[in-house]
């Protein structure tokens, strides 16, 4: 069925879903009034008011709207805040002269839907229009400096603009001029906007920062990677608008922050709507680029906008990084958040079940739940007028495809305040987010008949640390307290009870206390070094205990899924009463290196049996990798040539194969890449390239090296650019 008839019988015209229209779809240059008694058109006279030129006053408007960094020829403004244009007429306008400035967005613009706006001057001025206009200054030669204040809930996107003069018999418009098109963004500086953020330092960080830090690793070994958001780079804002067009989101819904971020959450992944990124959690990235090879969002968004085809491949931090670019580009305050020990696939369930065999070894075949070492999502800042007071502020939004929400793979916006209080009745997806940070880990022993007996419940393992980048620095900022009360506190129990009242299933197993505790510790380990584990058995009982223990090791994806199993070790330990014994276990580098693939995490689990009782301890060891070395030279000034040199020495005893080295810096250099077939042990590679800085202030250059047999080697250098 053709698209020209699908709307018949439901809409008189198709719902506009594209910000791009053909010029001929706009209003004609001359539009006669429909009033039957209108005076016939009189011949043109020299006294008739005529528009000669429209100037967008970008040098004034962009600094006032904090949009100078956008690499665009057109004006970029934020809604709810006055901007100025200069209109030159053929003569000095008189009070009786009737003219209006028209703003159109999308096809079939209408006043009722807000996609057509008329700001009127002259005898008709002072109407009920939601956009306000005023003449600020009459300048020489018939020019007027005009101030226009868009409504604080105006549609976000790219507008066309016309100036129309009334001659009694009709309206004479300016010709279509693409240079007068303007981009409208959300405005975190406007108190009437739903995304208003009162703190200036936070606005600088969460709206204007085009480079950031995303945290990875594990609770005991928090690592990070630098990410180029690049929301101001050429083509990125248009790519974000294209994303909304590709989603077929109605134009008149694009001023509603809730609807827009929910649509964006669905479109950043390709799971069910041919969105931006294809998820891949395997070791096979032959049909695209590995998630660890990206330096930032710019190349991904531009590739999607240029091809209309999903980009391969992404994992959670890539989804979060791209989504953060989308949000900041449109003016929405946002940040990337990392939840360490993140429970997954637990919608409506506060239990993560780990199953063990009778001998204490993990029963991987029957264990279905998983705990990700970390998971990245986003938070956006907005008021929630659709919810009771107190539920505005930071909201969880997640573009990583996990569970469907209203039929699409998306998540949020879920109020962080509602998650903390266990108010799972509110939209959107609060229950799912609540489980990610609050699930109990239940250890079960499975007998030969398949029956499960819980023997341990860990209530503090999941959501152990939730952090984001600090304002103004790269240090992690712990925001766990915004998601949950201290474990075991009265308010924490009240939250859990409230969550159960809303349908969340919680574990209430009656697990006997045993006087035996086992823990695993390990020092920081670099790739290529032996892993030394200290397994400590503590006997808190009055008699000695003999423990039959087993250490199971595996190389794991960051999702907690096993990639390769290492050799198990069994041993017996006797622990005297009220004492502890440490067993040291060494895992040689030669044992894990051949099986690493793209993974750099080793997972160890000790299980022990003593007098029919079971104990378990878990430890995640993240392998550190060497860094790329970056050096810059040249005058650090705008539009002055500078040079950057990237170097790397292969200190491993094995060659690196199929090496891709990528580099970019927002406001400094667009994404560039080099390929090396191999880097032999002891060999050094050096790449020197030039660039011309575009933006002033603190800047960063990020480089990433990705190989088929080694991932996550990166480096960054900071430089301050002057005018």
TrEMBL record:
> Gene3D superfamilies annotated for this entry?
Immunoglobulins, Transglutaminase-like
EC category: transferase
Keyword Metal-binding set for record? yes
* Active-site residues (renumbered): 316, 375, 398
User: Keywords on this record?
Assistant: Acyltransferase, Calcium, Metal-binding, Transferase
Q: Which cofactor does it need?
A: Ca(2+)
| GO biological process terms held by the UniProt record | nervous system development
Q: Which SMART domains match?
A: TGc
Q: Which InterPro entries match?
A: Ig-like_fold, Ig_E-set, Papain-like_cys_pep_sf, Transglutaminase, Transglutaminase-like, Transglutaminase-like_sf, Transglutaminase_animal, Transglutaminase_C
- Domain of life the protein comes from: Eukaryota
* Gene Ontology molecular function terms on file: metal ion binding; protein-glutamine gamma-glutamyltransferase activity
Ranges where the record places region Disordered: 1-23
Question: What range(s) does the Transglutaminase-like domain occupy?
Answer: 308-401
Q: Which Pfam families match?
A: Transglut_C, Transglut_core, Transglut_N
List the EC numbers from the record: 2.3.2.13
* Family recorded in the similarity comment: Belongs to the transglutaminase superfamily. Transglutaminase family.
Q: What is this protein called?
A: protein-glutamine gamma-glutamyltransferase
Give the species.
Pagothenia borchgrevinki
